Amino acid sequence: xxxxxxxxxxxxxxxxxxxxxxxxxxxxxxxxxxxxxxxxxxxxxxxxxxxxxxxxxxxxxxxxxxxxxxxxxxxxxxxxxx
Length: 82
Description:
Helix content: 55-70%
Order of helices and strands: HHHH
Largest sheet: none
Number of helices: 4
Shape: flat
Number of strands: 0
Structural class: mainly alpha
């Protein structure tokens, strides 16, 4: 199965500049993001464990988003909590 992703032209140019001659774009992305090959991690978690991990990541991301929004709001208003 193949998926298409959209990236900005600037990011694509940056990524292409880091691409080695013998690499595919996927290999470059994996190398640059240090992501494992799916075959290397397939079967490590049960379906229940994988779902719990996804939920934990989503909770962390939501917390990060809330902190970023609070910081942005404080910055925009010019006030601090001190």
